Automatic annotation (TrEMBL):
Pfam families, per the entry: HTH_IclR, IclR_C
Gene3D superfamilies associated with the record: 3.30.450.40, Winged helix-like DNA-binding domain superfamily/Winged helix DNA-binding domain
Keyword terms of this UniProt record: DNA-binding, Transcription, Transcription regulation
Keyword DNA-binding applies: yes
SUPFAM superfamilies per UniProt: GAF domain-like, Winged helix' DNA-binding domain
Domain HTH iclR-type: 2-64
GO BP, sorted A to Z: negative regulation of DNA-templated transcription
One GO MF term: DNA-binding transcription factor activity
Signal peptide location: none
Taxonomic superkingdom: Bacteria
Entry-linked InterPro entries: GAF-like_dom_sf, HTH_MetabolicPath_Reg, Tscrpt_reg_IclR_C, Tscrpt_reg_IclR_N, WH-like_DNA-bd_sf, WH_DNA-bd_sf
Domain IclR-ED as annotated: residue spans: 65-246
Protein's name according to its UniProt entry: IclR family transcriptional regulator
Length: 251
């Protein structure tokens, strides 16, 4: 299976500015592969609109599905250019770390981070993941998932990251209900010791796709301070939701 996928990807990469069309046997010879195997790959790619065959010349060229994927990638790049300055603005306003976490199966994936300069700060890396039961960022997502998915998330053995980590399924159920009622999530040293965080969900077409979080060291970012920045965090969530919904971006 992996060899077949690899061959299909190699085939697509053979179409470039210098070689925008290929005959089947010509392409097989250039790639050094069996022409029967390549024709099967080309047929599958054609059925899925990744290549097109000119029935007069019998030559293949890239199809519309490649363009569609390229446009999606381009849109995501442009959307990041729009979203990241908004994170930076809130980071500058609050003086604390701000990050955008997205749903990735039963985990949260940190997609974008903005951190204050010249300050003791809570650092989180872009691309890092964590389970959806621990901390404000992740529970702000899991609280709005279907109940069956919530049960799957909290049903197994849960890791106690700090002394404050909630690991009892009953307590977590109550906390998720509280988050749904309030539309925000607060955690105090649950995932990282001595760090407070407040988070709100981000929705696209009324479905939760992620969360926005402000976090900082407890000595500076107290619970009262968390509540002070909550209105600005909610405003940013509304802005993110609008941008992602209008542009029909799937994350």
């Amino acid at each position: 299976m992996l060899k077949t996928v690899n061959l299909a990807l190699r085939t697509l990469k053979m179409f470039d500015d210098q070689n925008s069309t290929w005959g089947g046997r010509e392409l097989a010879h250039e790639m050094g592969v069996n022409h029967t195997s390549l024709y099967r790959i080309l047929e599958t790619l054609e059925n899925n609109d990744f290549v097109r065959k000119d029935f007069e010349t019998k030559r293949y060229s890239l199809g519309p599905a490649v363009w569609e994927l390229g446009m999606r990638y381009y849109s995501q790049l442009n959307i990041e250019k729009v979203l990241r300055p908004l994170l930076d603005e809130l980071c500058h306003l609050t003086g604390e770390s701000v990050f955008f976490t997205v749903l990735n199966k039963n985990e949260g994936l940190t997609l974008m981070v903005s951190e204050p300069e010249n300050k003791v700060k809570f650092s989180v890396s872009e691309g890092s993941t964590a389970p959806l039961y621990v901390g404000a960022s992740y529970r702000a997502i899991s609280a709005f998932l279907p109940e069956e998915q919530q049960d799957e998330i909290i049903g197994g053995e849960l890791t106690q990251y700090t002394a404050n980590t909630l690991v009892d399924a009953g307590d977590l159920k109550k906390e998720l209900q509280k988050i749904r009622d309030n539309s925000w999530s607060l955690s105090q040293g649950e995932y990282t010791p001595d760090v407070n965080a407040i988070a709100v969900p981000v929705f696209v077409h009324k479905e939760v796709i992620g969360s926005l979080t402000i976090s900082g060291p407890m000595y500076r970012f107290s619970e009262a301070h968390c509540m002070e920045v909550l209105p600005a965090l909610k405003d940013l969530s509304d802005t993110f939701s609008s941008i992602l919904t209008i542009n029909n971006i799937e994350i």
